[in-house]
Amino acid sequence: MNEFVHLHLHTEYSLLDGACRIFDNNGKPADIFILANKYGMSSLAITDHGNMFGVIEFYNAATSSGIKPIIGCEIYIDAQDTVSDQRKSFHLTVLAKNNEGYKNLMKLLSKGYVENLVASKGKIKKEWFEEYKEGLIVLSGCLEGEIPNLLLKESSEEEIKKVVGFYIDVFGRENFYIELMDNSLEDQRKVLPKLYEIAKKFDLKVVATNDVHYVNKKDAKLQEVLLCIGTRTTLDDPNRLKFETEEFYFKSPQEMAQIFKDCPEAVKNTVEIAQQCNVLIEFGKVYLPKFYLPNGETADSMLEKLCYEGLKRRFEHISMEYTQRLEHELNIIKQKGFSAYFLIVQDFVNYARQNNIPVGPGRGSGVGSLVSYCLNITDVDPIKHGLLFERFLNPARRELPDLDIDFADYGRDKIIEYVKNKYGEKNVVQIVTFSTMKIKNTVRDVARVLGLPVSLADKISKLIPSADMNVEEVITEVSEIKELYNKDENVKKILDYAKDIVGRPRHSGIHASGVIISSGDITDHTPLFRRSKEDPITTQYYDEIVLKLGLLKVDFLGLKTLSVIEETIKLVEQHNGIKLDIKNIPFDDKKTFKLLQEGETTGVFQLESTGMQDLLRKMKPTVFEDIIACIALYRPGPIYSGMVNEFVERKHKRKEIVYDHPLLEDILKDTYGVIVYQEQVMKIAQVLAGFLPEEADELRSAVAKKVPEKIEKMEDRFINGAKKNGISLSVARKIFQQILNFGGYGFNKSHAAAYAVTSYRCAYLKAHYPVEFLISLINAEIRSGARIKSQKEEETNYKKFLLEIEKMNFQLLPPDINHSDVYFTKEGDKFVRYGLLGIKNVGETAAEFVVGLRKKV
């Protein structure tokens, strides 16, 4: 039996070039791993073009398939020493032998993108190899490699000797292989005999690779289509970038042995190299940056001290429930080794507060933590609102939980700057993201590449109900498309290509809010990347991956609404002499609830869409809990399932509230017997079936993700637990079915509660100080560029807020060079003066000059 391992393979992360998927659309290891097992390959390498984007995905897919992953990259070598063209680079295949090699490969790539970015490529300078050579195996590369390049140019023996000698001297003869490829290219066949000669002359081993870009031979056309999408060309363009043959597929060991039958050692050496490559990547460890503590304090003791101080500050009288809950949370945090994490977050949040940068009341499941509340990270009492700590930090969880923080939009960059200064600029970086090929755009792209009419692409795209559907779903569920697919050959061709393309990564981007704070050199954990010199530096691994690797990710979110609230408070003091404490406004204010019941919520955070206004009018909220429910319910799932109507009917007593068991009443009374929140699912499991908190969270996750095997297992556990509590089999089954029916649409109450606080604050300001609130909204739109950017939504908001002024019986005064300020202002009790920046094409400098000049006169 012939043994062979593919050591040069491009996945989908060689963006719009490599066509080998890592995971299929069902999240299972894709065809390359199935074929590797079929061919008896014990190992497989990933060598994407100039990046390691897909390395961790590949590692996980390979190991779960019983295949040893070999981590590598086809790197770009800076060719400026030998070629005058700045854009030219040589290719080199580099594989990591061990963890030291893996780290060195990450450092080399990072250095390329940070220090030597040319035409979007992070180029490696050869002199860097001396520092980062350990643990690496180097193959001489494809036709774009430095040595094949010299051979094709018929360079002198002296030049060739110099280059070959460099790699031998740096990496050692045992770690440098001459790479042989035969994809039936004329130039390859020209250089192959010469490459053999070089190997013999310099006593180097040869190794066979196939520069795999796609899985099967028939996929060559798919790869051409991808290349055309990436290079914005068409298949009939004679000058387009294309591969000359269809031989760049995942060949079997037998095929490779046949190709290199005159040099069997080249095939054999692939196995030799594979045996040397043993990178082990650890998951589940946590790498927190060092938080400097006072003498005698540990992270655990400091956290406990700050929490109890915060608890006393929050409450005049502290009940046993609060002290027990705090002790419970602290114990879990300490056991997990996460104390420093909370100290780090509270530090930059409190820095923001001390520097008068507004901070939101909270976001996400972290609002369910009493520790966060005591540390001033959040501003919602989790016990008062029935929020669960385990929804945030399940003891079984291995990764750090998310503590996402909203800051006023103008202050976000200041906070990130503070964090960089504290932990080191090199240890704080943003996170890469990848946009994927969506069905509507893919249809248009493929049609263009095939040279088919735009009208046909538009016709298909307009029939697709959702951009998140896959092609199979569209053909099955949309009868018009099914008919076109079966009757029109061109439609069939477009959709058949789209089947293989939808879901692939298209291009890289930058996470809107995510930032990594590292414990040391970040390139020990992730390679770095940037698309252009103007872009910030990011990780090469996306957010889910960096979390699995144990890095601290924090979402610093800029929220315009917080700036609006702040400006409104300043205007209220300026015009009314009232110093408003927004944190201590009454949460049972009649005027505020009247505004909400009438749906007059234009400009009110989370409650301003027409659909939400309609829901508010139907629901007529009377307590703060109703606002939380509105935010949780206003989503397609609850609306289309009838859940929203059920809630409204029960609230207004038009439908009887029935609890299938008395124990449910305490859990569901705030939502009139309807399961609205994920936390309610967790409480039902704990109270009725005796689930541990972490088991209840596992049930919540299984129901939300609709995992059949987990749900089945949990159902048995639920029914048996309920039976022990004296609940009949029929009632237990009925309640579990309700969990499945309603719980599948359940929303995170912690997140809804925090956002409801911000919504209520906006509604309160609009109800009591409408002019000041609307002026602040308009000015915020101007600051965000609503009059400059051609963003339809922002334009709409700007105009909508102008109309709202008149709708609320205030008069909008026109711009006036003698009266207008830079921004909109209040004049008297009933008038709003147009700001100079509200005039299209008037810039900030000109507006400030006019106002400044007027003040001098």
Describe this structure in words.
Helices cover 49% and strands 11% of the residues. With 857 residues, the chain is of the alpha/beta class. The chain folds into five domains: 31-276, TIM Barrel (Alpha-Beta Barrel), CATH 3.20.20.140; 299-433 and 510-560, no CATH class; 438-502, Bacterial DNA polymerase III alpha subunit, thumb domain (Arc Repressor Mutant, subunit A); 562-752, no CATH class; 769-856, DNA polymerase, domain 1. Strands 1, 2, 3, 4, 5, 6, 7 and 8 form an eight-stranded mixed β-sheet that branches. It is globular and about 90 Å long.
Give the class from helix and strand content and strand pairing: alpha/beta
CATH topology of the largest domain: TIM Barrel
The DSSP helix count reads 36
Instruction: Tell me the name of the CATH class of the largest domain.
Output: Alpha Beta
Helicity level: 40-55%
- Which parts are unreliable, with pLDDT below 50 for 5 consecutive residues or more? none
The overall number of domains is: 5
Rounded to the nearest angstrom, the distance between the terminal CA atoms is: 95 Å
Number of strands: 17
- Based on the coordinates given, report the CATH architecture of the largest domain: Alpha-Beta Barrel
Q: Considering the protein shown, what is the CATH homologous superfamily of the largest domain?
A: Metal-dependent hydrolases
Mean pLDDT metric: 92
Strand share of the residues?
5-15%
**Main β-sheet: number of strands, strand sense, barrel status?**
8 strands, mixed
- The general outline is globular
- Based on CA atoms alone, the radius of gyration comes out at 31 Å
